[in-house]
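Write out the 3D structure for:
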Amino acid sequence: MLVWCIYDISKTKIRNKIVKLAQEHGLYRVQNSVFLGNIEKNDLDEIALQSEELINEETDSVYIFPMCKKDFKSVILQGQAFDKDLVSEKVKALFF
């Protein structure tokens, strides 16, 4: 399944652990605090469980959004914040 993982974490050490967790489970960084990937449900569950254990729920947030391929095809990319080559070409090539 196609999954977006978006986070806002105050402590660098915890943030780095979330980055490593996302990458180990097959997600690719598409922006500083945004990962995207085509992963299995058990990987999604593992990311959710481990990130919940790592973060401070009073100061941090992690959002995990599954997305169907049909909806991903209609994503609109704007602005300089995106790595347009990765997001629009390589990521689509990876998943479609």
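The mean pLDDT is 85.
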